[in-house]
Amino acid sequence: MTLPNQVLISQDLSCVGQVSLGVALPIVAALDLQPAVLPTALLSTHTGGFGANTYLDLSQQMQQIIAHWQTLELKFNAIYLGYLGKAALPVLAEHLSNLATANAQILLDPVMGDHGRLYSGFDQAYVAAMRQLARQADVLTPNVTEARFLLEQPQSQQGLTIAAATDLASQLSQQLAVPNVILTGVPLINGQIAVVGCSQQKTWSWQTTRLPGHYFGTGDIFASVCFGLWLHGLSLEDASQQAMLFVQQAIERTAAAATDIRLGVDYAAGFQQLLAKL
């Protein structure tokens, strides 16, 4: 059984804080697609500023869910993978080919680090496993830190030029045999922030004003919007631009309202404008 408009989303769910599955599911649904979910973990809050959050690994439950789906011969035309975790990643690596149709479009956001460091609990073995999983993806959306870990390159906190970021994206595409790579949140030497893409030997970039502060969940929002628009037929170049603008405007609304940034950004107010792009 193949459900043509369904998008399988597999990542963690935080009970408080708009990140990961908490934003991916409503965004995919708002874009007139039907989300199906395969949660990797359940957290009381996300890990940014709330203190000692709880963490329930769901990798064993994932295997039971997949086993049930296999009795239904259930497969998906679109799959979106985000934060997985050390126990869940091997489950997806083993079963991804069984969950995907022959022509499935798979986006992998290899969430594992930022600011030149791996997130807590991850190590080089996790990076190596993520590198192998990336070879099954059609679209890869790492930040600069994740890109350098995947390429086994030294980390740096210095800003990049567009040319250097484009080279980084191109190297990922070539070395991991991923047809489409979108480098997100690229800090530029001119003080702006950019999205840089490499797709079938074509490259592009979009840049915008870099706003002060750190806002949780923006990478998840970007990937969700970009993937959803791409599934609707926009080019990845256009989809990435619209996703960048959507995130930028959500941050601006949140900054103007001066709300608690730990709770995430005000992205839902931009749905009407986003849907007009379809």
Structural overview:
The protein is α/β, with parallel strands linked by helices and about 280 residues long. The protein has a single domain (about 1-275), classed as Ribokinase (UDP-N-acetylmuramoyl-L-alanine:D-glutamate ligase, 3-Layer(aba) Sandwich). Helices cover about 40% and strands about 25% of the residues. It has helices spanning about 20-30, 60-70, 90-100, 125-135, 145-150, 160-175, 220-230, 235-255, 270-275; strands at about 1-10, 15, 35, 40-45, 55, 75-80, 100-110, 115, 115-120, 140, 180-185, 195-200, 200-210. An eight-stranded mixed β-sheet has the order 3-1-6-7-10-11-12-13. It has a three-stranded mixed β-sheet with strand order 2-4-5, with no helix packed on it. It has a two-stranded antiparallel ribbon with strand order 8-9. Helix 3 links the parallel strand 6 (about 75-80) and strand 7. Helix 1 (about 20-30) packs parallel to helix 7 (about 220-230), helix 2 runs parallel beside helix 3 (about 90-100) and helix 7 runs antiparallel to helix 8. The longest helix is centred in the last third of the chain and has 22 residues, at about 235-255. The protein is globular, with a radius of gyration of 18 Å. About 45% of the residues are buried. The mean pLDDT is about 95.
